[in-house]
């Protein structure tokens, strides 16, 4: 049995490994495919693909699936839609991602200003000096505050300063779910609801969300996930059956920013079989007709 990981981050957004390092790690673990799904950017995909050609074994090649994780607004919450098998040169998608990055920068400036009012010496320029061209997220704010002694851990930074009920938090101007799914389809990809149980909806509320997204053309749902416990996977699979959605799975790997989550194996027992790729590719064929 070969295994894959369809939810992976690099330092093109809020992971800590470069796309080349991610590809190298995937090859060393004998994964047959990973999807690079950085937040609101496709910038790391080409590097990861080039690295995979060099680093993976010719008898066991590593496939890099172009992806991105798009943030959308739903009932005052931040919901994530994965785009998989994307055309990284698609202009409408790249234009929308560029706009999202501008809005993200504006939000980051406001949040940094709020944090300075709390006595934290932080600016977006200081973050960029450390993180380079990475898409800045709240994880970078947390890392900075921990490294500079304002908090003991990244978790504490989120709990005290960065969660959406904090007075220092600034909401983003998000894409609508309908627009995000449309952009993914325009770029030749599949739209997948990421980690559906992390949003803490009850089953009726989750059904409402999935029903709405399906009307907009949702293709899949992430049923195999690092944070699943108990009957979680079965719950998501039942939603997939109800709404004719394909199943995906991924670790949500971020390197040292989520040190308890390993590429390809999550918290130790994650196994995403390569056999999931065939129904995904069949769905792609149907979508292209």
UniProtKB/TrEMBL annotation:
GO MF terms held by the record: 5'-3' DNA exonuclease activity; 5'-3' RNA exonuclease activity
**SMART domains (alphabetical):** POLIIIAc
- The organism's place on the tree of life at top rank: Bacteria
Please give the CDD domains that the UniProt record associates with this protein.
PHP_HisPPase_AMP
Residue ranges of every copy of the Polymerase/histidinol phosphatase N-terminal domain listed in the record: 4-74
Write the protein's name. Answer: Polymerase/histidinol phosphatase N-terminal domain-containing protein
